[in-house]
């Protein structure tokens, strides 16, 4: 049985509303719940009549790596099959108050809220399995299901993407990290949480450029710093990365049409984040990359990770690379 603890406002997707939008519902069980199952990218979608095209059109995210690659794998099932899939780590259930399985999930207050507001959205943790995320979208009538998914698609995608990243991060931090490598990196003014497959190359340390690399698949992270003269702009960041990778990575350059560039504030530093695709014509190679250009006092720091894994799926490796980059700490 679920218990609703507060009424929600479902208008808009502002930051203020987002924090209010998700009802807190708690599932009480007298038995110990099992561990969740399933691969990181798998999402179970449950409805009385699942519209796979509607789900993919509104909830799928794509990485360009450089080929277009879907982030999630949606496994769409009828509500009658839920018992076979209720231990999966991520479940999205949707339907109307006319669906029996929805009525079994909601208490009286939740049903009244849906009748009044047309749509309600619920986010639950540990519903049928430990560490599980369950999202439930409920509409007053069946004809409101598509408008409901379209209304909340940005929020739903945000929840699913953050959940995906969290699971990749959780899996990564079960590894054993290389303390000696961390100690070596510290001498150059930065540390990362790196496991024992990574190697350091300090050939260009006198030019303030060092990198670490790992294989199977090929991954590389470089760190560079210089005195910042003038303003950090998006055009400068693109040109600077191209000059660094052109020199130290045998001619790599950014495909700007497949790269997102945004201003950020990260770890108390302002800067620019670039996420996109690199290419190397002479090596006939390419793949995804992530760069942080960050300023601290009068110094520019560049932290960059890239992946090369031709012919294979890349998103999970690339997200793990993002987890590693996000672990960085400057050492003064």
UniProtKB/TrEMBL annotation:
Segments passing through the bilayer: 12-29
Alphabetical list of Pfam families matching this protein: DUF4837
InterPro entries: DUF4837 (IPR032286)
Name of protein: DUF4837 family protein
Keywords: Membrane, Transmembrane, Transmembrane helix
């Amino acid at each position: 049985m679920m218990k609703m603890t507060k009424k929600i406002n479902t208008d808009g997707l502002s930051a203020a509303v987002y924090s209010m939008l998700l009802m807190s519902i708690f599932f009480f069980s007298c038995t110990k719940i099992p561990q969740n199952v399933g691969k990181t990218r798998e999402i179970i979608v449950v409805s009385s009549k699942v519209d796979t095209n509607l789900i993919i059109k509104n909830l799928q995210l794509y990485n360009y790596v450089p080929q277009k690659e879907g982030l999630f794998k949606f496994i769409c099932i009828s509500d009658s099959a839920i018992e076979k899939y209720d231990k999966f780590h991520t479940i999205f259930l949707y339907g109307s108050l006319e669906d029996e399985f929805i009525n079994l999930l909601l208490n009286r207050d939740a049903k009244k809220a849906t009748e009044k507001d047309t749509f309600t959205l619920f986010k639950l943790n540990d519903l049928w399995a430990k560490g599980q995320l369950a999202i439930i979208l409920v509409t007053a009538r069946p004809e409101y299901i598509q408008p409901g998914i379209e209304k909340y698609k940005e929020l739903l995608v945000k929840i699913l993407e953050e959940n995906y990243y969290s699971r990749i991060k959780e899996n990564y931090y079960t590894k054993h990290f290389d303390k000696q490598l961390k100690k070596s990196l510290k001498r150059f003014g930065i540390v990362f949480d790196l496991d024992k497959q990574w190697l350091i190359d300090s050939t260009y340390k006198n030019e303030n450029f060092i990198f670490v690399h790992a294989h199977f698949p090929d991954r590389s992270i470089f760190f560079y710093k210089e005195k910042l003269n003038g303003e950090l702009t998006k055009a400068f960041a693109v040109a600077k990365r191209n000059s660094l990778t052109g020199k130290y990575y045998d001619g790599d350059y950014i495909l700007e049409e497949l790269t997102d560039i945004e201003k950020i504030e990260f770890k108390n530093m302002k800067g620019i984040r670039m996420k996109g695709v690199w290419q190397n014509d002479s090596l006939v190679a390419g793949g995804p990359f992530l760069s942080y250009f960050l300023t601290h006092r009068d110094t520019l720091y560049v932290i960059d990770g890239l992946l090369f894994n031709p012919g294979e799926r890349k998103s999970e490796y690339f997200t793990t690379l993002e987890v590693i980059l996000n672990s960085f700490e400057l050492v003064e």
